[in-house]
Write a structure and sequence with these properties.
400 residues; alpha/beta; seven-stranded mixed beta sheet; two-stranded antiparallel ribbon
């Protein structure tokens, strides 16, 4: 399993290295602790995982740092969008951080992950820096995909991240293809790396998902269908859009598991159990996370016409995923409230500095439009001679 280490943290968040060392003396408890998760699982044709998780200070501090970094990064995106520094589509993930964090902490580096257009935080966890994420949103060449993809199209094949997809549900059949490749390339008798495809409740009833599920079941592919159920497909509640909104049961003969998606430890333990089942040759599973987004569907949606501000506030108060981690750290004697505040301040400074650095970038040259469109027989980039734009007079010609 992929476990987060100080070396990983120092690579992704270099300013944190000294703080990891200097704040260790604040904790009063060392070693592993047991956390009772409560009623966080509901299973369909699958044994429910244990309701107890084991963790420790280092692990929880990493969860706090990374999840709070995601939160601040998305809040920065909100601010920059409203200032018109970021244009176009922009779908934010704040509120759902425990899902991505828990999934990442349970995967191996060989597993493949593909998701929807709400992809900034997944790209970050899969190896992109905050600066690269923000620069991509600005459309600058120092961005994650050189400023050519934007908010919905992050990608990092070397880190097992096969992108955010701009079309609702389109990533799911591609995820099944990734699962097919995982099985095809794994020697017989060995456990198979898995593929996961994340999609929302708004896509859950699409025909392409059922076709991909049927094929995955017939071929026993190591595929996990991950429904991030934030309860609103755009502005439509699940009760109004789905005759069966217990999405983890919708696979019929395919087993399913529903998890409290606001609890990072529950997510981790649920994914570990599902991964073990799927990687052992048993075929696919449905995995539903009960989560919530704080922003609207996208930055063009205020998120208050189909739900009340009180509803959002109640979730923030009672179920916030970052507050949950902070509470465990303090209640278990693994950290102090002052230390947690120091972590948060460090994260805010780090994200702000990343924004400043990202903003110093420049748009890619027009010549970049002709690259990474076609490849030759060896898979190497074969620049296009001509890229047609809507106005043919403004089209791009290489070396002209």
């Amino acid at each position: 399993m992929m476990r987060f280490t100080k070396s990983f943290c120092s690579k992704v968040l270099p300013k944190y290295t000294s703080m990891i060392q200097s704040t260790a003396a604040f904790s009063t408890v060392t070693g592993d602790v047991s956390v009772e998760l409560g009623d966080v699982f509901k299973a369909h044709a699958f044994p429910s995982p244990p309701s107890t998780a084991t963790t420790n200070r280092e692990e929880l501090m990493e969860y706090l740092r990374l999840m709070y970094t995601m939160r601040r990064m998305e809040i920065t995106c909100d601010t920059e969008y409203k200032a018109r520094a970021i244009r176009g589509f922009c779908h934010l993930y704040d509120g759902q951080e425990a899902v991505a964090m828990g999934i990442q902490s349970a995967l191996s580096k060989e597993d493949a992950w593909i998701t929807s257009y709400r992809c900034h935080c997944v790209a970050f966890l899969r190896g992109k820096t905050v600066e690269q994420v923000l620069a991509e949103l600005y459309g600058f060449s120092n961005g994650a995909t050189k400023g050519k993809g934007g908010s919905m199209h992050f990608y990092s094949k070397q880190n097992g991240f096969f992108g955010g997809q701009g079309i609702v549900g389109a990533q799911v059949p591609v995820g099944a293809g990734l699962a097919f490749a995982q099985k095809y390339l794994t020697p017989e008798g060995q456990k198979t790396p898995i593929a996961i495809a994340c999609y929302g409740d708004g896509a859950a009833n699409q025909g392409q998902i059922w076709e991909a599920a049927n094929m995955s079941a017939l071929w026993k592919l190591p595929m996990v269908f991950v429904i991030e159920n934030n309860h609103y497909g755009m502005g439509t509640s699940t009760q109004r859009s789905s005759s069966n909104d217990s999405y983890y049961t919708m696979g019929n003969k395919i087993p399913g598991l529903r998890v409290n998606g606001m609890n990072v430890l529950a997510v981790r333990e649920g994914v570990k159990a599902v991964r073990e089942y799927v990687s052992s040759g048993n075929g696919p599973m449905f995995l539903e996370f009960d989560t919530y987004r704080y922003h609207g569907h996208s930055m063009s949606d205020p998120g208050t016409t189909y739900r009340t501000r009180e509803e959002v506030g109640d979730v923030r108060t009672a179920r916030d995923p970052i507050e949950y981690v902070k509470k465990i750290l303090v209640d278990k004697g693994l950290s102090t409230a002052d230390e947690v505040k120091a972590v948060e301040k460090n994260v805010r400074d780090f994200v702000n500095q990343s924004m400043i650095t990202a903003k110093a970038g420049q748009p890619p040259p027009v010549s970049e439009l002709t690259t990474e469109v076609y490849s030759d027989n060896d898979g190497k980039d074969a620049p296009a001679d001509f890229v047609r734009l809507p106005d043919i007079k403004k089209s791009v010609r290489r070396n002209f």
